[in-house]
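I have been asked to look over a protein record a colleague put together. What it holds is a sequence and that sequence's fold in token form. Please read both lines and tell me whether the tokens look consistent with the sequence. I do not need a full report, just your reasoning and any doubts. This is what I was given:
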Amino acid sequence: MKVAETTSVKFACLALAASFALANQPGDLETVLKRMDDASGKFRTAQASFTWTQYNKVIDDVAETQKGKIYFRRSSKGVEMSADIMEPQTKLVIFSDGKIQIFQPRTDQVDVYDAGSHREEFESFLVLGFGGSGHDMMKSFDVKYQGPEKIDGVETAKLDLTPKLEKVRQQFPHILLWIDPERGVSVQQQLFQTSGDYRIAKYSDIELNQKVPDSEFKPKTSGKTKTVSH
């Protein structure tokens, strides 16, 4: 896997999971911030079905569509994430304890990446997605409220986030989020890349604070599985 591709996968996998946010007008902002803070205080786990659609600027069309289930949980290690990609090829992406594991059953190999100096950026995207508080989010992003919008029958608040860290902006200049303020979660996200490409993530069948088995956060390996550290 090339360095640029690896970096994109790392950020996108965590960023594609981003789902909690808020509004920007003084009254709206504080109201949604408080809702996010309340949801964060009660957060234990989350799970949802997802569709990730990657658009390529060069071909001006969809380059890839992935579908699956995504899981989050709060533990002593912080917020952990597991994305079980089922289509078009099975793949498991896990973020836990500052490490990213990508397991591909087709090759029976687990690639392990240490977030290292990028851990703070990864985790800011991750808690923005599920379990992060509103006021903490404002430490990492500048937020603009773009008005209400209905997404798949859900009344949402549309938000534009700009990362405050320059090294993050070099990868992702801004993110659009469509937030369900009643639950404090996002039902849709659009992640823009500096190349002009972008990814749209749609989340459905969202369940909060239900039991998530430990097995969802472990690659289903065998004695023959190869592990490669990068």
